[in-house]
Amino acid sequence: GTTVRPVSLARTGPLAVEALAVGPDGTAWVLAAGGEVLRVDGGQLRTIDRLPGLTDTRVNAAMVDRAGRLW
To answer: Which of 66, 57, 54 is nearest to 16 (CA)?
Structure first.
């Protein structure tokens, strides 16, 4: 089954999610408006300023391949 655990976001204001992807290891990637990238792994939240290779802050979709790479 699926386990759902709350994660506290240390931020103020709303988070406008543009895409969400979950990898084979259960790591969740949240891509938000303005290019903000959040990684939720084992209940730990990490903010990544910007992913290498992104040329724009708009995201239409996201996926994680079998090797755990975010596309």
So the answer is: 57
